[in-house]
Amino acid sequence: MNAYDAIVIGAGVIGTSTAFHLARLGARKVLVLDRKTVGEGTTSQSSGILRTHYSVQENVTLAQLSWDTFNNFPAYVEDEEASCGLVKCGYMIWAADDDKLAPLRASLQGQQAQGIALQYLDARQAAELLPIARFDDAALISFEPEAGFADAYLVATSFARAARRRGVTVKEGVSVERLLIENGRVSGVQTTAGRFLSDIVISTQNIWTPELAAWTGLTLPVRPERHTVLALEGPQAYTFQMPVFKDLASKGMLYGRSYGGTQMLVSEGVAGETLATPDTEQGDVSLDAIVEIGEQVAQRFPSYETAGLATSWTGVYDVTPDWNPVLGHLPGVEGLVAGFGFSGHGFKLSPAVGQVLAQCALGLPTEVSLAPYSIERFSTGKLLVGKYGSGAVS
């Protein structure tokens, strides 16, 4: 019998988290479908940075809830052998005396109002934590000790394994061809492996969300955007004890972390290359991009002026007009719930997002209000715009 209590489309970190939480909340028969394998898509391209720093307060709440999960991951998924690969090194963010200074101060005050532990540092204190960097132009520096980075692929596969233990069926290599709708209500999906029935469908299709738009006729504002990530081999160690950084004073609002030994993983936090069609295949990393990012790194980390390129890759974001996700019911199709448009935030928020999508789908009160994340905000103008402008630090 191909009938299920709920069907989840997509087995990335959001989809597997949603499936786990559906089962945890009592859904007895849950199906997850993915065109590839668990965590193979954009999840595998994540830089893995974890922070609660956001200039959009709603995101701070989701990040707080998610951090609690990451910090207690084996217990949360009830598997002593499970790991999210957490490195708790802290998160340091700073701004110069420019247009980012007031927004940073306001964002930090918002975090503190929500009970998040922060430290304000002077240049000397910052250099003690991140000695390979210079801070002479920093007008405001903050450090969030309860932050760091983890492994998105490990998290997705751990959620999938925990979901399977609770009876969830995960079918890999199965593509959804269309949504089945009867009398304005979802009734299942047609796939390359046949028809599966359910009156609850949760789409976590990420950059493939335009397929959902085609199946439903809904306008779902999301575009695939490719970003370049570099691993630079420098002359000085960037240890796992040194914090993740966000440099609002740099042209590209650089972010980075240790990649082990003397390597730095680094990328820009601004708009990337818009793709004509969804594609997770590796794009070309241009010499111009390497030079542009490298010059900014050298300005902040002087010894990295002589750094070499250890490796590089591209990651694809599913970006909405305000760089924040759509979460919850979609209009016109009863029983259809979606989570898309994470714009680089998906991994950081994945435990909490999976929980609220599952709660929403099952008709339960959600841990946080999904009203600010509704798709209607794009027509009403109530956008979730970050204080720093377009980019993944919203």
Q: Would you write up a description of this structure?
A:
- This protein is α+β, with helices and mostly antiparallel strands.
- Helix content is 27%, strand content 25%.
- Strands 4, 5, 6, 13, 14, 15, 16, 17 and 18 form a nine-stranded mixed beta sheet that branches.
- The radius of gyration is 21 Å and the shape is globular.
- The N and C termini lie far apart (44 Å).
What is the strand and helix layout of this fold?
Blueprint: E1 6-9, H1 13-24, E2 30-34, E3 49-50, H2 57-71, H3 73-76, E4 91-95, H4 101-113, E5 119-121, H5 123-129, E6 140-144, E7 148-149, H6 152-165, E8 169-172, E9 176-182, E10 185-191, E11 194-197, E12 201-203, H7 209-216, E13 223-233, E14 244-247, E15 255-258, E16 263-267, E17 273-274, H8 287-300, E18 308-319, E19 326-329, E20 336-340, H9 346-361, H10 377-380
Parallel strand pairs: 1-2, 1-12, 2-8, 4-14, 12-20
Antiparallel strand pairs: 3-7, 4-6, 5-6, 9-10, 10-11, 13-16, 13-17, 13-18, 14-15, 15-16, 19-20
- Helical residue percent? 25-40%
From N to C, what is the helix and strand string? EHEEHHEHEHEEHEEEEEHEEEEEHEEEHH
The low-confidence runs, each spanning 5 or more residues with pLDDT under 50, are none
Number of strands: 20
Q: What is the overall number of helices?
A: 10
Mean pLDDT: 96
| Computed CA radius of gyration, to the nearest angstrom | 21 Å
Strand content: 15-25%
Largest sheet: 9 strands, mixed
Overall 3D shape? globular
- Protein structure class: alpha+beta
